Amino acid sequence: MRVELENLSKAWDGVVGADRITLDIADGEFVAFLGPSGCGKTTTLLMVAGIYKPSGGTIKFDGHVVNEVAPKDRGIGMVFQSYALYPHMTVFGNISYPLRIQKVNKTEIKERVQKVADMMGIGDLLDRKIVQLSGGQQQRVSLGRALVKEPQLLLFDEPLSNLDARLRLTMRGEIKRLQEEMGITAIYVTHDQVEAMTMADRIAVMSGGVLQAYDVPTDLYEHPKTQFVAGFVGNPPMNFFDVEIVAMDGEFRAKSGSIDLALPRDRAEKAAAAGKDKLIMGVRPEDIYLVDDAEPAAPGRTLTAAIEVVEPLGREDLLGVTVNDVEMRVLVDKTKGAAVGDNVDLVFDMSSVQFFDPETEQSVLWT
Question: pTM to 2 decimals?
């Protein structure tokens, strides 16, 4: 099913939940709505589901406007964060419930429930009550209940938030595999960028009810169109500095107090062409390195910093450092042995540097 949203809006007593959201989801595509709490992602999903009535704009399924179509007639399956299961029913009762509402005959119900349960790996649990299941098993029941209707569109509202990290990883893979095998169009709401980046074909990034960007994961990461996208997509978040672009001695430099770094010509020329006295420069923590034998000092790209904080992340350490009065985060291999109080030299990989207009927060590199 192809889904088109055109200037879709929702407001309550002047409070805007979604503001003129326009995007196109292809048949069989997996799209994530990504953003922080209150950004409008769930509001938009619930309008697609028919639970919320839009204040403006249109929703089209395969070219047909469905604004006035009841949720039960939209051909959708929905999986909630809370699972929304009936605790007094068995697994069979929960999965079969939508079919019984549709008055499907008992033989077909039994066949379809067994097929979906086997697909979800819970075919031997059909007689159990919901309270006898683990969180992961309950999530599979919830997904099975959505799939048993054989929907054309699957809607997910943060379905993995209540699971532990290991089970989230497993369920991410299972959901994506099922979606691809069945060829169902899917919309997946999440605040977790790892879920969005690993599962989605395209990601709609939202903030304050506004669609900030809609693109494939790699382009959102490498070519962020706004400062919000640059800061939200990527973990740890991007470092931002107020700088001016200065041409000197045949090269361009980003300068501001403690910051003085040589820039690659292609990005520097685009930044300078913006005609702004000041720009916001963004550098990701993983693009900053400690000077050592493997990464020697680089003329024009090295700054001296003091380590203020060391956060162990397993294979890597996240360092909080200061360059005089400028704070930044640096991601380094744990074998570097960085310690609080050390003074270190940092090399900046400027090939991925980003620049944004401080007034509009729009990228001056990717328009």
Answer: 0.90
